[in-house]
Amino acid sequence: MTQDIETSRLTVNGLTAYLARPAGGSESGMLLLPMVTGIGEQVREWAEAIAATGVTALVWDPFHGPSSDDTSMPDLLAKMPELDDAVALDEQTQLLDHLLGELGCAKAGVIGWCLGGRFALILGGRDHRVANVVAYHPTVPGETPPNHTMDAIAHTGLIKAPVMMLYPTADELVPRSRFDELQSALQGRVTGPSLIHVYPDAEHGFANKTRHGTPVNAEAFALSWPQVLDFIRVTTKI
Predict the structure, then answer these.
(1) Disulfide: which of 66, 108, 142, 159 matches 29 by Cβ 3.0-4.6 Å?
(2) CA–CA separation, 89 vs 71, rounded Å?
(3) Taking Cα atoms as reference points, which of 191, 202, 212 lies closest to residue 166?
């Protein structure tokens, strides 16, 4: 059963963010880490779908304003090398603090897509307050970009919370060898269950509705999203 929700733009310690939550709030929360679109329409829709299940959703703004609503994809892609791991993780931690503080959540997890999926794995390894980690097609490329100063695979092995990771085998950015390393890191943990999804022939970013003109991507999302929502609900339940 879906719940009535309320949405707003807000500022947390100077950081812009998007909030969707059940009317009156919730003790369960999720920090959302977007893909290259920033806080565009697609990510807001996901936040609102999570809120409709009874979970507060707070969205990090990777580019401090620009999003797919008002900025071209080439311009957004050009901003990616400017993202600094340490700065981004500090911002995400401040938003997690806000979820677990002013927003009244007793438990909160993290979900990310693409670049946000990589950050979700790193944040989960760094901050053991998270109740879960969901990584949709995390961008951990074969050749590490200069601005990727934190080792996503090493941090993945440090996560103590339940993890759901979703990998498309036709991912043009993340070779199968990288997925195998991430999977080994998850399965080598001594605490925290791992739910690993593999979607044959689906492409990087298959969750984004702009890629659903390709049937295999639409089918992968249609199968995965209800399971992700259930995973979030169960792991953040008080």
Answers:
(1) 108
(2) 24
(3) 202
pLDDT at 1: 67
pLDDT of residue 207: 98
- Cβ neighbours of residue 40 under 8 Å, at least 6 residues apart? 34, 67, 68, 69
Mean pLDDT of 104-129: 98
Contact 120, 111 (CB under 8 A): yes
Q: Which of 25, 33, 31 shows the shortest CA–CA distance to 7?
A: 25
Predicted local distance difference test score (pLDDT) of residue 191: 94
| Bridging pattern class, strands 163-170 and 107-113 | unpaired
pLDDT at residue number 2:
80
Chain centroid to CA 119: 7
Q: Which of 130, 132, 131, 150 is nearest to 140 (CA)?
A: 150
